[in-house]
Write a structure and sequence with these properties.
By secondary structure, the chain is of the alpha/beta class. It folds into 2 domains: about 220 residues, Spore Coat Polysaccharide Biosynthesis Protein SpsA, Chain A (Alpha-Beta Complex); about 70 residues. It contains 10 helices and 8 strands. It has an 8-stranded mixed β-sheet with strand order 7-5-6-4-1-2-3-8, sandwiched between helices. It is elongated. The protein starts with 6 loop residues before the first strand and ends in a 5-residue tail after the last strand.
Length: about 325
């Protein structure tokens, strides 16, 4: 294998002071092993991206970078969210690397799969997806909702990789192509498959978080899923039109039924049904306006063209 393949492992972090020591050690061991076996260049490194953490995450990253020659730290000026933090790391690392691997600090993704990703890259793949082989480590609720999410995304016409999150390898040119996608409402799981190039998949079993708490509670997960759908598909708006047509058809049927009842003398005061109809139609209208408003809001955010992230500090430590 060529020793000129520089690998950068990008790790977005938000309040990960508990998981960081485990993450730094595990990823350092993996990277050093790859360097020793000459699958990647000795210039390879790990880039921890601090996404405006409120705990001691950055202090730990900074300290580790000073004593660990393969660790670097990138401090963002504020919390910009997981996707933007990951993008900041990828763009920064791509300046000095031939390939990047993105992985979360909680080590739920199998670090040993990185070697398989590098092997696939050395065999010609530009993008290598880390795909979960099963969801036995998830709760029943999370398993059902996650699988439902991928099915809904597929039904909405969003191109994504089933059971894949943000654990992936990307070549230098793949990340360069990713930079051309300038939207502020980022959903990398949907954008990366649009890049094209040769892709491969590596399967692994997902483990439990090594330390700390999940940064994606149910509320955030639902928002993330909704953002993903509305960022890539206009089918929800089409569904509103379909719903409107269905309601009109039902209203016509109800109108005919009312006329027949009136002329046959079976008509009775329908105050309850009238109130229910008003509330139902009112709810449909408000939901429809809200959904359309989400799309308008995204257009508003995109039109301002604000920067997706600002870098406060890039800590490379003393490598002498």
């Amino acid at each position: 294998m060529s020793t000129n393949n520089t690998l950068a492992i990008v790790v977005p972090c938000y309040n990960e002071q508990d998981a960081f020591p485990f993450s730094a050690k595990s990823l350092t061991d993996v990277l050093c092993s790859l360097i020793k076996s000459q699958k990647v260049s000795p210039k390879s490194y790990i880039l921890f991206v601090d996404d405006g953490s409120k705990d001691n995450t950055w202090s730990l990253i900074e300290a580790e970078a000073k004593i660990n020659p393969v660790v670097q730290g990138l401090k963002l000026s504020g919390n910009v969210g997981h996707q933007n933090a990951l993008l900041a790391g990828l763009i920064t690392a791509n300046k000095t690397s031939d390939m990047t691997v993105s992985i979360d600090a909680d080590l739920q993704d199998d670090v040993n799969a990185i070697e398989k990703m590098v092997d696939a890259y050395n065999s010609g793949a530009d993008i290598v997806y880390g795909v979960r082989s099963d969801r036995s480590s998830d709760s029943a609720f999370k398993r059902v909702t996650a699988q439902g999410f991928y099915k809904v995304m597929s039904a909405m016409g969003v191109k994504s990789v089933y059971n894949h999150a943000d654990f992936r390898l990307m070549s230098h040119r793949a990340v360069a192509a990713l930079e051309n996608y300038e939207e502020r409402n980022l959903f990398l799981r949907g954008i990366v498959p649009l890049i094209g190039y040769k892709t491969e998949a590596v399967y692994y079993e997902r483990a439990k978080r090594v330390a700390g708490e999940s940064k994606y509670p149910l509320k955030k997960m639902l928002k993330f899923a909704f953002d993903g759908i509305t960022s890539f598909s206009i089918k929800p708006i089409s569904l509103i039109t379909t719903l409107g047509i269905v309601i009109i058809a039902l209203s016509l049927i109800a109108f005919i039924y009312t006329l027949v009842s009136y002329f046959t003398g079976n008509a009775e005061p329908g105050w309850s049904s009238l109130i229910i109809s008003i509330w139902f139609l009112g709810g449909v209208q408000l939901a429809s306006i809200g959904l359309v408003g989400q799309y308008v809001g995204k257009i508003y955010v995109e039109s301002k063209r604000r920067p997706r992230f600002n870098i406060e500090k890039h800590e490379k430590g003393d490598k002498s």
